[in-house]
Amino acid sequence: MSLELVATILGGLTIGSALMVVISKHPVRSVLFLVLTFFLISSNYILMNAQFLAIVNIIVYAGAIMVLFLFVLMLLNLSKDNEPKSPFYIKIAAVTAGGVLLTVLIAALKDGITVGATSTVDGSSEGLVQNLGHLLFTKYVLPFEISSVLFIAAMVGAVLLAKREKQLID
Predict the structure, then answer these.
(1) How high is the pLDDT of residue 166?
(2) pLDDT by residue (tens digit) across 117-165?
(3) Contacts within 8 Å (CB) and 24+ apart, 105-110
(4) What is the pLDDT of residue 136?
(5) Helix, strand, or coil here: 119?
């Protein structure tokens, strides 16, 4: 089987499982489809010879984040009885927002589709952590630092919310 055929099959499976995340009516099944989506994304990373990103994706997202999602779902005990009835105008707003998002996505991807390999690293060192670190701290240093500040702000916000919640209980 050729590499292009495997990539096409994996891409189709990834899109299918991502659609099942949204389509599934049961929240636990939706989370399990999301885990499958993360594993399929990791297999796409392996096809692109980015093994480090594949392992990090499995450990962080399919492991830690999905356990957290399942814990929250079990804690909330969601069911159809607890779900409020949504008015018709909210459904219209959701369809409109989805259409606008689809339009923006198509406009963004229209110029971004390229055919062929565009790798600038030689074949022997492709996919190494050293190359990833070099790119993160040279070409992508500003987005990398902005995301780190964002993560620190999120952690501080979570701690402050937890302390405030505890003070309200006491």
Answers:
(1) 56
(2) 455 555 566 557 787 778 878 888 887 788 778 778 877 777 777 676 5
(3) none
(4) 77
(5) coil
Asked if 38 and 18 touch (Cβ cutoff 8 Å), the reply is no
**Rounded average pLDDT over 106-119:** 65
Q: Which residue has the tokens 């499958």?
A: 36
**Which residues, at least 6 apart from 148, have a Cβ–Cβ distance to it below 8 Å?**
none
Rounded alpha-carbon distances, angstroms, from residue 60 to 57, 68, 75, 129, 145? 5, 11, 21, 17, 20
Alpha-carbon distance of 12 to 8, in angstroms, equals 6
CATH architecture of 1-79: Up-down Bundle (1.20)
**Hey, where are the domains in the chain?**
1-79
pLDDT band at 54 (very low <50, low <70, confident <90, very high): confident
At residue 123, the 3 state secondary structure works out as: coil
Q: What are phi and psi of 140, to 5 degrees?
A: -110, 35
Q: What is the pLDDT of residue 84?
A: 66
- CA pair distance 113, 99, nearest whole angstrom: 21
Please name which of 100, 114, 28 lies closest in space to residue 69, comparing C-alpha atoms: 28
The full DSSP string for 21-37 is HHH-SSHHHHHHHHHHH
